Amino acid sequence: MIDKTAIKTTMKELVAYKVLPPGSDDVLECAKFSGEVYKAGARPHDPTIILFYDPKDAPGCRKEVLIPVDVDVDGLNTKQMPEIRVAFIVFSGTYNPIEFYYEKLYEYIEQQGLKPSSEVCSLEAVYQPDEFNLSYGSLIDEDNPETWRTEIMVPVVE
Questions:
Q1: What is the number of structural domains in the chain?
Q2: Neighbours of 70 (CB within 10 A)
């Protein structure tokens, strides 16, 4: 279910980041990196973000996992994310494949008379549900996918 589609400027924020190898499993890599951030003593915040420099289905797609943190912590690569003007779509559940939501977002961008920026292809942010109902050993709330909220952001220009 689509919750919202609009234009916004992201906030400037400090993030811990890790460059992901092409072809890696994003969900698994996010879970691993989240554990590394906690072990390093950082205080992570929602959302966990995958930044795609290239189209996500492109061979050799360059991508990073980003987790907002309060301060620099030894053992973690951090950087200041700049403010970015983006078109975004927020949706809940897993009723449609993610490509469906990308298509809706690109339609919205075109309707607004905007164009995708060439600096970054897209960002996907996953927000944890307010209540957890994880199975033993689960990395994510796989038993309740309807509680997941995902935000896709595409940087835009006039």
A1: 1
A2: 11
